[in-house]
Write a structure and sequence with these properties.
The protein is built from 7 helices and 2 strands; from the N terminus they run ααβααβααα. The chain is an all-alpha fold and about 200 residues long. The chain has a domain of about 130 residues.
Length: about 200
């Protein structure tokens, strides 16, 4: 008696399969900038240091600057809350980028869709804000004012060197739709933008 093994083999639950696809997409996106592209590829790439590297450098600076105070309950609660919020910013925004099939590669400026839901309703740069928040949480754990300097430096570098290039690509791709998004959503938090959009053509 023949048995159809295609019917009796283990089945991958839908949620697990989707998680695997999301992780695969994340790995591909995260390493895409280091892959040699075919000649004629019209994907715009930024020849700059990836933001994650800036974040790692800022973390290293916090350690190198030294200084640490005993962890108090108040700082522990603040650091935990900050780290949790930062993790949500990064994870949920990555999930939404995956759902809309648009790139998260910061060196590949080829957006396929404008993500304006979830964390992107409150900040135009939830992933970068999440990295900054993680650095802030580390600073709270250390209890050293000097460890705040790398956080400020990270935000300044990303705001001046990375974000304007991304916004220029978004503006070219989505035009008025992106302009409306800029006017209703702050670049970071609290203010509509730290860099006014250029004059319209």
């Amino acid at each position: 008696m023949n048995v159809d093994r295609r019917r009796t083999g283990p089945r991958t639950p839908r949620a697990a399969q989707e998680l695997l696809e999301a992780v695969t997409w994340l790995v591909v996106e995260g390493t895409a900038s280091h892959v040699k592209r075919e000649q004629g590829d019209d994907v715009a790439r930024v020849g700059r240091v990836p933001p994650a590297v800036w974040g790692g450098a800022a973390f290293g600076m916090q350690i190198a600057l030294g200084g640490a105070a005993p962890l108090t309950p108040a700082r522990a609660v603040a650091a935990t809350a900050t780290a949790g919020a930062s993790g949500w910013l990064v994870v949920d925004s990555v999930r939404r980028f995956y759902r809309q099939s648009t790139t998260i590669d910061p060196l590949r400026l080829n957006p396929e869709s404008l993500v304006d839901s979830g964390p992107n309703q409150f900040t135009r740069n939830p992933m970068y804000l999440g990295i900054a928040g993680t650095l802030l949480a580390h600073s709270l754990v250390r209890g050293s004012l000097r460890s705040l300097a790398p956080v400020v430096l990270f935000v300044a570098v990303i705001d001046r060197l990375q974000v304007p290039l991304e916004e220029s690509a978004m503006r070219q791709r989505f035009g008025e739709e992106f302009e409306r998004y800029v006017h209703r959503t702050p670049r970071w938090l609290g203010v509509p933008t730290l860099r006014r959009p250029g004059p319209r053509a």
